[in-house]
Design a protein that fits this description.
The protein is of the alpha+beta class and about 400 residues long. It is built from 19 helices and 11 strands. The radius of gyration is 28 Å and the shape is elongated.
Length: about 400
């Protein structure tokens, strides 16, 4: 039925040959049914962690407490998890205890959504006790069993629900949607790192506007995420988290503080800062304006910002792109490093200390206005004449 990598089949067959059941499970099965190549494969089995370790010599007990052993097959780590049932989730995130079971139906019953609650092997084919295949065909996200219970167990599932709606472009079944919104306040119980992961995937999806109800019900207020107005346009932006996050938080006065709360990387925060500097410079109209922006950032960031202006603000940026390309192609100066003079040329003129940087910045601004001025003799003459 499915084309499964040989190394995965080898694992399934080896477990089966030792008298246990084993299946690929969850998102990889969903993706295969949708005609998408899975990024990775999860395996579930009736064998206990000790039994898996006895079968596979190369193994790492990465999550043995929760039934997960990582097996090294063909040089690649593959996670194998024992069928399990879970008790109450005392903190709306982690089960109080994990019980290993021998039947796959119990394991599938604890999963989040029907589209993720399917498994497959060569012997039994597709096991789909919650009609996940039908929900995939209808492009519907539906909780397994009682939606309210699923979200009370693990509040991260609420973020995952809206993330899947965005990335898979699925609708949310009404009872599942209602339960998610009613329990959305529990998201604050989830670690910021996990929220970051789900929010990033959502914002890089194809239907970002699905997050709007979460914002409107105040579920993300504790992260200062509120009053976001570009959600219906985000999916049209380039698939770059920095520009999408910037546009998503467009209305926030403390954009960088929010990015810090969400624990985004220094690289992403630096890129957001660049977009914010572009915004403070105003809408560019001339080459001089564009050169100031290039001096504040770089070409890649500026082009992303122009996409934001066009898609989110409705500004025609074709001419801005044309002028930008001319600046780059003609190697027109816009930074101090492009000047035909350097600090060592100015020291003999008696310019030192803080005045050195001030003078170079003065020359940069003059060259931006008059590109032909950028030769050594003209710049030195400019300095001398400015003293008079």
């Amino acid at each position: 039925m499915f084309e499964i990598p040989q190394k995965i089949l080898n694992i399934l067959r080896k477990i089966s040959a030792n008298g246990y059941e084993a299946y690929i499970v969850g998102g990889c099965v969903r993706d295969l049914l949708m005609g998408i190549a899975p990024h990775d494969y999860d395996i579930t089995t009736s064998a206990t962690p000790d039994e898996i370790q006895a079968i596979f010599e190369k193994n790492i007990p990465t999550g043995i407490k929760h039934g997960t052993i990582t097996v090294i097959e063909d040089g690649e780590p593959i996670e194998i998890t024992t069928f399990r049932a879970e008790s109450e989730y005392l903190d709306h995130r982690h089960p109080d205890k994990v019980e290993f079971v021998r039947d796959v139906e119990s394991d599938l019953s604890r999963r989040d959504f029907t589209v993720n609650a399917m498994c497959y092997n060569e012997q039994k084919g597709l096991i789909d006790i919650f009609n996940g295949k039908k929900d995939i065909e209808n492009r519907i996200l539906r909780a397994v069993g009682d939606a309210n219970e699923r979200f009370l167990e693990d509040a991260l599932r609420i973020m995952r629900l809206f993330r899947f709606a965005s990335t898979l472009v699925f609708d949310i079944e009404p009872k599942t949607y209602t339960a998610a919104i009613e329990n959305a306040h529990l998201i604050r119980e989830v670690s910021v790192e996990r929220i970051n992961t789900e929010l990033t995937k959502l914002l890089l999806g194809k239907k970002c506007e699905v997050i709007t109800p979460l914002i409107n019900c105040g579920a993300l207020d504790f992260l200062e995420i509120k009053n976001c107005f570009n959600t219906d346009k985000l999916s049209d932006l380039p698939s770059n988290i920095s520009i999408r996050l910037f546009a998503f938080l467009d209305n926030s006065t403390n954009l960088l503080e929010i990015a810090e709360k969400l624990k985004y990387s220094n690289k992403i925060k630096a890129e957001i800062s660049t977009f914010e500097r572009f915004r403070l410079l105003g809408i560019p109209k001339t080459k001089c304006d564009i050169k100031e922006m290039l001096n504040s950032g770089n070409l890649e960031m500026l082009k992303l910002y122009f996409e934001y202006l066009h898609i989110c603000k409705g500004i025609d940026t074709d001419n801005l792109l044309k002028l930008t390309n001319e600046i780059i192609e003609n190697k027109e100066a816009f930074s101090i490093s492009h000047l035909a003079v350097s600090g060592s040329d100015l020291i003999p003129l008696g310019i030192t200390g803080a005045r050195l940087g001030e003078t170079l910045e003065f020359l940069r601004e003059e060259v931006i206005k008059e590109p032909t001025l950028n030769n050594k003799a003209a710049l030195i003459e400019k300095i001398k004449s400015s003293r008079n």
